[in-house]
Amino acid sequence: MLDYRKQQEWSNGFGHQQSPIGFLSATAQPEQLTTSLFEWSSPLAVTTVIDRETNFEATGTGNARLLQQPVTFQQLHFHAPAEHQIDGHQAAMEWHFVFQDALGQLSVVACFAELGAANPLFEQLLTHFQSRQTATLPQALPVNSWLPQAGGVVRYLGSLTTPPLTEGVHWYLAATPLTVSVEQLQQYREFFPQDNNRQLQDLNQRRLFKSVL
Ligand SMILES: [Zn+2]
């Protein structure tokens, strides 16, 4: 099992574009896009919940375009507490919607979750999760409502936040948070007591771009 307390030992044969990062939003360069940043071209849905030992992963289906690049939705998984930090703030959770293009290049749309109203999608996943199992959901659960539809987005080039820590991952961080309830987070932490956030990595010379959906 991945041990986040020993993450300094995770081998990283890569260079200077690691994730997650922390930054001040004022340092992100505004960009005016001539096309839409996100197009959720088809209904995206999750169909199974898999125990990944340090969190659970909901595998999915559906097509989208990220910066006009066609991608397929792979899976959604969770980090508690959040991995990225904007303006020094660490949210209660961070949700990673993972996409892949035809060449195998990965993109992650990250949504923060703060404590507040219960989240119906998260509730369904908590209900159907089974320890050490791959649980098939009784019906595919649409996830489009939980993807960013409005608000600010910061994008940058980074890496996977778990081994093999591969670089070349396109990150999109949505500023407008989702919510989960205290009870939901407690239930999740009963399944996964260990924090599963990787520590902040050096920004180095990377540029951050911000736009508004
Ligand atoms: Zn992740």
What can you see in these coordinates?
This protein has 213 residues and is mainly beta. It has a single domain (27-202), classed as Alpha carbonic anhydrase (Carbonic Anhydrase II, Roll). It contains two helices and 14 strands; from the N terminus they run ββββββββββαβββαβ. It has helices at residues 120-128, 182-191; strands spanning 22-23, 29-30, 38-39, 45-51, 56-61, 63-66, 69-79, 85-86, 93-100, 106-115, 134-142, 152-159, 167-180, 209-212. A hairpin with a 2-residue loop joins strand 6 (63-66) and strand 7 (69-79). It is globular, with a radius of gyration of 16 Å. The termini are far apart. Bound molecules: zinc ion. Zinc ion (ZN) is lined by residues 77, 79, 96, 161. GO terms for molecular function: carbonate dehydratase activity; zinc ion binding.
